[in-house]
Amino acid sequence: MTKQRNQPTAAPPPTLGEGCLARYDPEALADTDGTEFPGAAELWQQLNQADAAASAPAAAAPAETRIPAHPPTGRSSR
Fold it and tell me: How far, in Å, CA of 47 to CA of 49, rounded?
């Protein structure tokens, strides 16, 4: 006879809403659900600063400068 092992299962916390509006119920979340992230605010600021620097216009290029588009691939220039 085979011995049955204790097979624990995991389940997500309860949700509110449906479809695209579904979200975890904040009232049902506990510390054991892994909701504590002490560095979240600092990470958010770092990511937003990196995004702002990447989306800033280049200071060296004048606004009226245009870059030509690349020709389509796989076509002859004739």
Answer: 5
Residue 36 tokens, joined: 């504590």
Cβ(15)–Cβ(9) below 8 Å: no
Q: What is the mean pLDDT of residues 27-31?
A: 85
Give one DSSP letter per residue of 13-68, joined into a string.
PPEES-GGG-EE-TTT--GGGT---TTHHHHHHHHHHHHHHHHSPPSSS-TT--PP
Contact partners, residue 22, CB within 8 Å, separation at least 6: 15, 16
Closest CA to 24 of 15, 11, 12, 35: 15
Mean pLDDT of 44-52: 84
* pTM to 2 decimal places: 0.35
